């Protein structure tokens, strides 16, 4: 059941990307290792492909929304698996945000609503 409009998803992606980039410093595990790099890389990727997506808050509008949602699933899988892939001790934040990104992808409409243009 897709209940999340693309406009809200776009806004959440910008906020989520910034949160992921800041999280190592907010949770005080900014050691420069895999736990820091995976979160900041995922946050950066989310912001960049969100800016390039064809939705209401996209800037370049090069990526169709369904492909954006596929990218979300890939990033979510990467985040959730990162603690085991890199043998990091910080499991909870990666797993939590991986599930959050996956949930937003699953709940988002696959097309944006087009503006209604009236001809006079």
Largest sheet properties: none
Q: What is the count of β-strands?
A: 0
What radius of gyration results from the CA coordinates? 16 Å
Q: Briefly note the structural class of the backbone.
A: mainly alpha
- Euclidean distance between termini CA atoms: 37 Å
Query: What is the H/E order?
Result: HHHH
Molecular structure report:
The chain has 120 residues and is an all-alpha fold. The protein has one domain (6-107). Helix content is 63%, strand content 0%. It contains 4 helices and no strands. The protein has helices spanning 6-26, 34-51, 65-85, 92-107. The longest helix has 21 residues, at 6-26. The model has no long low-confidence stretch (mean pLDDT 90).
Topology:
Elements: H1 6-26, H2 34-51, H3 65-85, H4 92-107
What is shown here, in short?
With 120 residues, the protein is an all-alpha fold. It is built from four helices and no strands. The chain is elongated and about 45 Å long.
Which key features would you list for this structure?
elongated, 63% helix, mainly alpha, 120 residues
